[in-house]
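Project outcomes to date are best conveyed with an example. Our students and postdoctoral researchers have been running inverse folding experiments weekly, and each run begins with a structure described purely in tokens. The record below, which covers 374 residues, was selected by the lab manager from last quarter's runs and is presented without edits.
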């Protein structure tokens, strides 16, 4: 479906690609990089602007609002084949019991509204389960994991005007998805060798993808997904993170650095502060989308770590839902960090449906007024 933007792209004197590169390296830019993370599913049926323009996905919404373009290429860095797309096992009047792609049995609302599922059972409960699934679904050197590099070159030519990242997967976050929060917490102590082998397998899958594309595609940054923290800090112990996860990050970072990739962000919710020094030591130098209420104002960490750290996100979604005065106050608190560089402001997760459409447009207008090209 062709999307007709309803907003003008911010005035520019640089390409989106050069702007992103400069901003992430604390170099001069024409203006701030303009992007957002996305929206809850409910927004697409609650906001009239989405209804009127038949917008049903984040990608479509980003086109509609004419944000700067940023793209990420990801290899097949997880189980293959997966367990299928939410296979229904049982239904009640209000819920469904499904098995998701990661092999988790979960209870979800029948009406499909966004919520964290109630996970009931994992497909991996002991080392024997892991060995079976590893043999069946985590084989590395199989044809299905081969990347069509020539087609990738055509899709993302060297003269593109947008930044392109390479996905570096997940070392422990996806394992947490597969084992559940409780399961991974127990496995650290009950089955440490199994858990480390799972981390090692994830690392090798990422290395296999990177070896196929690095040096052949000119990537501008690396990305990852590591939802391993909650409001009280990391789910696993800091010692486990340091001794098991960090060495794998360092192996990946060595490959990235060898090909000139020195910006690496990871998507991690919750309070990342206890593991932030370890992330930086590993080569991950950018936080995304930086949940404020579980952590702190982004400026506090940018002040503490200086130009060693970058942040993407960090606009408090609670302020977005409190109306124009709260939005302006929070936006003003970000001014010195946007001006300094290394920081791109946007909603600190998917924008929730309690945010009024008119307030969201005010937020977009104010962001352009304060951080657009003058």
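After processing, the design step wrote out the following sequence:
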């Amino acid at each position: 479906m062709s999307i007709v933007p309803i907003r003008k792209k911010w005035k520019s004197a640089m390409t989106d690609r050069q702007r992103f590169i400069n901003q992430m390296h604390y170099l001069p830019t024409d203006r701030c990089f303009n992007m957002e993370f996305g929206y809850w599913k409910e927004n697409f049926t609650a906001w009239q602007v989405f209804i009127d323009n038949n917008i049903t996905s984040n990608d479509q919404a980003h086109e509609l609002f004419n944000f700067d373009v940023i793209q990420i290429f990801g290899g097949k860095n997880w189980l293959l084949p997966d367990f299928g797309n939410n296979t229904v096992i049982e239904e009640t009047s209000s819920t469904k019991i499904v098995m998701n792609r990661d092999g988790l049995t979960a209870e979800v609302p029948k009406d499909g509204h966004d919520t964290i599922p109630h996970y009931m059972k994992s497909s991996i409960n002991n080392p024997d389960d892991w060995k079976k699934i590893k043999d069946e679904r985590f084989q590395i050197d199989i044809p299905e994991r081969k990347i069509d590099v020539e087609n990738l070159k055509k899709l993302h030519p060297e003269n593109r005007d947008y930044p392109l990242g390479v996905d570096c997967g997940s070392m422990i976050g996806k394992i947490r998805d597969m084992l559940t929060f409780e399961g991974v917490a127990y496995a650290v102590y009950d089955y440490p060798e199994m858990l480390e082998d799972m981390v090692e397998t994830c690392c090798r899958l990422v290395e296999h993808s990177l070896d196929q594309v690095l040096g052949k595609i000119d990537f501008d940054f690396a990305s990852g997904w590591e939802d391993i923290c909650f409001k009280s800090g990391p789910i696993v112990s800091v010692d486990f993170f340091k001794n098991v996860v960090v060495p794998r990050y360092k192996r990946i970072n060595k490959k990235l650095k060898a090909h000139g990739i020195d910006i690496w962000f990871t998507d991690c919710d919750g309070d990342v502060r206890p593991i932030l020094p370890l992330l930086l030591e590993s080569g991950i130098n950018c936080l995304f989308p930086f949940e404020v209420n579980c952590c702190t104002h982004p400026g506090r960490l940018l002040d503490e770590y200086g130009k060693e750290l970058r942040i993407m996100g960090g606009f408090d979604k609670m302020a977005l839902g409190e109306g124009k005065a709260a939005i302006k106050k929070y936006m003003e608190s970000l001014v010195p960090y946007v001006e300094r560089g290394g920081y791109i402001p946007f909603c600190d997760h998917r924008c929730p449906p309690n945010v009024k459409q008119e307030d969201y447009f005010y937020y977009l207008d104010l962001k352009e007024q304060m951080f657009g090209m003058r």
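The chain has a mean pLDDT of 95. Residues 84-122 form one domain. The training component of this project remains on track.
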